[in-house]
Amino acid sequence: MLLSASGETSEVLKEILFVLTGAISAILGGFLATWYETKKARKIRREEVIGEKQVEAYQQAARVASSLQSLLMQGTLEDAAKYVNEQGDWFWKNRLFLPQGFQNKWISLKSNLRRAIRMEKAQANQEDEDKRGKQIDTLGELQSFLDQLAEEAEKEILGELGLSPIEIEKFSQRKQEASRS
Length: 181
Hints:
- The chain has 181 residues and is an all-alpha fold.
- It has helices at residues 2-74, 77-86, 88-94, 100-125, 129-160, 171-180.
- The mean pLDDT is 88.
């Protein structure tokens, strides 16, 4: 009788142990499932926030690049440099959300604008006409390079958005096309 009571007690303890193990496993599983879902939800939310900020940064970058192109065509080098400097805070705040290609073009524009302004001042003070002519030629090439950089910066952003730049038709192009036909 002692053995049978001891055997029954042992069986009951085994059953209790199995129930406790199952309960602990269920609690742990529930905790891990909740933790995983929370982690996944945070990641999704973080990606949504980054996506929203990225779209805002891209929109502003497209406007900035377009405005800079206009300034380079219609304004002075000083105007363009001032504009780039005014946009400095915006650029550094949004740098994490901008494509690397745009960042490279922006920094290159800033650097080459400073160089062009120095070169413009130097050629204005140059008395030797041959040297001055060469400086003017180099400045013209640098101006074309700046125009190209600004255009490429805009294309970089628009490409990321799946858009293409607006192409402005010019009268002289239309006239040449019409004469070929």
